[in-house]
Input
Amino acid sequence: MLHFHRLIALAGLALLLPLSTLAASSDAADMSGRYIDMQRCMERTMGKNWQQRYEVELARNRWGATEPTGPSIDSAPLVVRMTDMRCRREVNIETEPRP
Output
C-alpha cells in the first residue's frame, strides 16, 4: 500500500513539472520581448548603431538578449545613461540585473 501512495505522489509530481517548465519558458519569452522593446526604444531616441557611436559594450544577459554591461553604461555619456534609464523603466526591466 505504501508503494502505491509513493507511485501516486511521483505521478502527481511528473504532471506538475511540465507546467513549471511551460511557465518558465513563458517568462523567458516575455522577458526577451521586453529587451527587444528596450532596444527599439534606445534606437528610436539615440539612432541606429548608437552602441558603436558611444562605444557601449554589449553582453548577453540571462534571458538571451544583448544589452549594455553595467560598467559600460555607467561610463557612457549622460544622454545615453538617461535614455537607458527611461527605456528600461518604460518596459519594466529597471530592476533586472545587467550582465
